[in-house]
Amino acid sequence: MFLQGPEIDKRHRNRTGFGWSMAACQVQFDQSTTGVGILKTTFDSTPYCAYLGIRYAEPPIGKLRFRHSILHQPSGHQNYTSDGNICPQFENPMIRDRVLGDEDCLFANIYSPRVGDNSGVSSSKAHPVLVFVHGGSYLMGHGEKDINGVDLLVDSGVLVVTFNYRLNMLGFLKSDTFNISGNYGLKDQTTLLRWVQRNIKFFGGDPDQVTLMGQSAGAGAVTNHLYIQHSKNLFHRLIALSGSFLAPWSFMYDYPYCSEEYLNDLKIHSPEQLKLIDFREFLMETNPAKYWLPFASMGMPFFIPAEEREELHQDNYTVEKSHAAVLHPPVTSVPVLLSETAREFEDVVNSLQQFVFHPNIPQNWTKSTIDAFTSSVDDFISMTVTEGHASSREEVMQNIASVANMKYPMKRLASDLVQTLDPSINPIYYLRFEYDGRFGKSKHEYYSDFLEDSRYGAMHGDDLGYIFSPYILEQAVAAPDEYREELRTHRWTVELIANFIKHG
């Protein structure tokens, strides 16, 4: 499940009795197909409907494992009052302790400002739609990851869609030998966008006003969709928070070596074996470092998007190499908002050794090339400190990591978009989120034990606490004077995002 028990109540507050709530939140797909959700209220007392656990694609199991997801159209009476399964992942990927989730995981949640007439509030207006693609390095996360509510977005009249997509090996394994085309997580996202185009009107959403937003790996994914033919015209604006498909952690170049090594370790020798083994076996307990990307500032898996040519695989889906794709105009030309945080991961990277070199290196890199590269980086670090441009080697390393993994890939994408789009028709915006308040969950909870100092600036993911509802919302609402600055920044940030969603 996404969340269970009392956590659901913290995230969305019931407006009134359960039966009355369901009566207020109903969708009618056709004469014989209906769905029921739950009526909630925002902290500003605005009613809205939450529809949970909506199946948007057929279960990717059995013969549909390692295949393009198939759109699911609801039939009969649907009970949208509880969350669906999350996709398979480790509870803690760094220690690979316990496997969570299930392969049958392609579910969405919809939070709609439209409520039924019998609620006392009605609206026939179609609302602009925000489809959010979660982050998590393509190996963890779910639709509700780092989302603690949609209060101010709903208050702004925005309908929000969150969803799961396949992750890790099940989502991004690629093997020419076994006709596994890869990119299944991206294909799930395309299927979700198709489902939205077909069905969001029944929930009060406007299919002609869909904004696709992703954070971290989700940002890498959504920027990919700008150039994917199968996603053409399925969205009308795009927001990328702290990520780009040009980043070294967002595109696999040397997949044959990596995937064959992985399949050999699994003792997989035929396509039939891939269909029959339990999904938990794909999450092996062997040394995870063997499957990390090179040049990453932290251990990152190599199960990520890769090039796909439609003539080579049965899925008929095309994904270009990212650095080639940006040389021509996007397939879908839309207004784009790119956003970075002030510090991203700088404060949790402190050694050259964390720029790991593992199997996924460019094919023309030899050991001598790698040694020369490492030596050049080390010389640059020493020179920067010696000349007084930084106080320590760690500070230089942090800055290099930030530039290599976030700042350069995003600014390069912005530059390429400006060159290939007409900004007068499809403007390109670049935002830097610096505010360092208590709604930033990354800095004040996730990474608090790893920070060596308290330098000012928002970290990677802190901006989510100002777009969606913050993780300490209850404390803030109970003591608004104490959290005055955070609440003001929260409202300002949502207003900015909502204006882009509505007007581009």
UniProtKB/TrEMBL annotation:
Domain of life according to the entry: Eukaryota
Which residues are in the Carboxylesterase type B domain?
38-504
Enzyme Commission designation: 3.1.1.-
Q: Which Pfam families match?
A: COesterase (PF00135)
Q: Which UniProt keywords apply?
A: Disulfide bond, Glycoprotein, Hydrolase, Serine esterase
Catalytic class of the enzyme: hydrolase
GO molecular function annotation: carboxylic ester hydrolase activity
Coiled-coil spans are none
Which family is this protein grouped under? Belongs to the type-B carboxylesterase/lipase family.
> Can you name this protein?
Carboxylic ester hydrolase
Q: Which organism is it from?
A: Anopheles culicifacies
